[in-house]
Amino acid sequence: MASAVVVNAQENALKVGDLAPEIDLLTPAGQSFTLSSLKGKLVLVDFWASWCAPCVEEQPELKALYDKYREAVGGGKFEILGVSLDRKKENWAQCIEKFQITWPQASDLKFWNSKAAKAYGIEELPFNVIVDGVRRVLAINLHGKELSDFIGRYLKENK
Amino acid sequence: MRNYIALAGALLIFAGSLAAQQKQEPWKADQLMAPKALAEKITKNQAGNTFILCVGPDALIKGSVDIGPGKDAESVSKLRTYLNKTPKDKEIVVYCGCCPFDRCPNVRPVFQALNEMGFKNARLLDLAKNIKVDWLDKGYPIQE
Fold it and tell me: Which chain A residues are closer than 8 Å to B140 by Cβ?
């Protein structure tokens, strides 16, 4: 099992094994989207923003990951949920368009006042959480190869 | 003896690269402004003669002007226009706060431009981690 690194020091910081807080935000099209709607899937919740350079740099990697596991996505086993801390909708939408992001995206466009950022006790971006089908936190802040390996291993073990 | 020479050589290279890294920053250490100092200035209404310019995600510091992301040439151009007639001794405080300086793409192009324009009192707000931790969470003044 890959080690999970918790980088934030807030008291309400999420820990591996916790039940991940519900996320209920709007898609760029203005429709409600909830994390619980992805019940039964392994979900990578990627907190990001168009203003966060390291987050933006990571989007092509996530796209490659999404493409690599597209069968699992199609089979209802895996999903990525992008949660943006953007303030301006046009910046958010432009970034989604630029990187041709096809996984679900949600935001309340409230920057650091985002209710999701508060619920997850996020102190800095990039930040991500991997949850299982019942929203149990499996790992926090895995990136690069560590992230890809974790997803691959989990999907292999939970076919 | 040979080991000592190798060690001395390695130390020289290390010191050299360190100096090179420090030289690369367009600001000097004494141009970094503590967030607390700016917050007190704003709270005590002493920021009237200071331009506070945001070159990052959201101009949330009270009284600050949104220049746009400093990494974009368009923003630097806007900055040059905005400060075109400003006296060179004006205090200008630039901030971003997207992330720590080593990962921030915004502050360097802007600070470089301020240097090129000859501003003598340019400051960089020392948001070591980000605008959330070093400003918002401290309850410092934000835009209404």
Answer: none
